[in-house]
Amino acid sequence: MSGFREVGEGVAMEAGTERSVTVPAGPVQLQGDLAMPAEARGVVLFAHGSGSGRQSPRNRYVAEVLQQAQFCTLLLDLLTADEEAQDLYTREYRFDLPLLAERLVAATDWLTANPETQALPLGYFGASTGAAAALIAATERPEVVRAVVSRGGRPDLALEVLDRVQAPTLLLVGGYDSVVIDLNREAYARLPGTKHLEIIPAATHLLEEPGKLEEVARQAAAWFTRYL
Question: Sheet containing 17-25: which strands, arranged edge to edge?
Fold first, then answer.
C-alpha cells in the first residue's frame, strides 16, 4: 500500500504538520487537531466514543498511521469543555447520538469548505458510540462521505438509518468482545452496500493486546486507501 509504513511498539513516527483548529457547530465551537501530510490523498474525520476525546491514545495512534498513508486527519472533541465536565457526572451527552451526529455533519461541512481540505475525498473513523454517530452523519452527507471504519463500535445504535448508509463500511471488533460482535452482526445485516465485518482474534473491546491496535490501523488504512 503506497505511503504506508508499519509502525510497531516503541518506533517513532514522522507525523504530518498538525495544528489546533476551531470548528463551529451551531451555537458552540469545537476544538480539534488537523494534521496535513504532504500530498494528502484524502481526509479522515474521527468520531470518538463515549467518555473519550481527541486526546484518545488509540485514536491518535490510528491517526498517525493514516497520516503515514498520506491521509489528512481531524481529531475532534465532539463536546465542549463544559459539556465534558457535566457529562462526567450525568453521562447525558455521550449517548446523545443525534447531537454527536449533528456535530460531525458540521465538521464535515467545515472540511468541505476549508481550502486545504475541500478537494479531498472524506471518510469517518468511529469508535464505540462514535461509530453510530458516524453512520448517522454519513446518511446526512451521502454525497460527501466516501467510507466509514468502525473500531469496537456500536453501529446497532443507528439501526433506524443503516439501510440508508451508502458509504462502504468496515466493522472491526475484538474476538473476545462477544456482546459487541453480536450487535455488529445485527447491524451488518442491515447495511445495504459495500461492507465487511472483521473479527480480530484474541482481542478485547479496546483492542489493547499487543499488535491488535496495529492491525486496526493497518485495516483502516487499507479501507480508506481503497475507497477514498
Answer: 17-25, 28-36, 72-76, 43-47, 122-127, 145-151, 169-174, 195-200
CA–CA distance, 143 with 152 (Å, rounded to integer):
26
Summarised one tens digit per residue, pLDDT across range 25-77 is 999 999 999 999 999 999 999 998 766 678 889 999 999 999 999 999 999 99
User: In this predicted structure, which of 1-5, 89-93, 171-175, 195-199 has the lowest mean pLDDT?
Assistant: 1-5
10 within some domain:
no
Q: State mean pLDDT over 161-177.
A: 98
The answer to whether 195 and 188 have CB atoms below 8 angstroms apart is yes
Number of domains present in the structure of the chain: 1
**Angle separating helix axes 129-140 and 97-113, nearest 10 degrees:** 60
Phi, psi of 2 (to 5 degrees): -60, 135
Assess contact for 142 and 119: CB atoms under 8 A: no
Q: Residue 15 domain-assigned?
A: no
Instruction: Answer whether residue 118 is part of any domain.
Output: yes
* Cα(96)–Cα(215) distance, integer angstroms: 30
Task: Let me know: does 82 contact 54? Beta carbons within 8 Å.
Answer: no
Q: What is the pTM of this model?
A: 0.90
Q: How far apart are CA 87 and CA 85, in angstroms?
A: 5
